[in-house]
Amino acid sequence: MGIAPKGLRAYFKKDTLQFAVLWKLSLVLKHIFLAQLGEYLLYRFETIQEKALKKELAKKNDYIQKLEIQLETLREIIQKQ
Fold first, then answer.
1. For residue 41, pLDDT beyond 70
2. CB atoms within 10 A of CB 38
3. DSSP per residue over 10-75, as a string?
4. Structure pTM?
């Protein structure tokens, strides 16, 4: 990060933190502080990745439902034989 330990300690003692510093800390520590802060908001937000995963899950749930209908139909056919 290019900051002396003394300077880093000073950042953590402050009540506020500049966005650039928060960004650098996120990169160095491999932790998404901005997302963590977002969890404290009163409203829910979704990332692009979360939206894509929800869409994929919905498609797979639809596919499972179709397979369950087919399975039930096959069971009925087998029972009639």
1. yes
2. 13
3. HHHHSS---HHHHHHHHHHHT--HHHHHHTTSSS----HHHHHHHHHHHHHHHHHHHHHHHHHHHH
4. 0.54
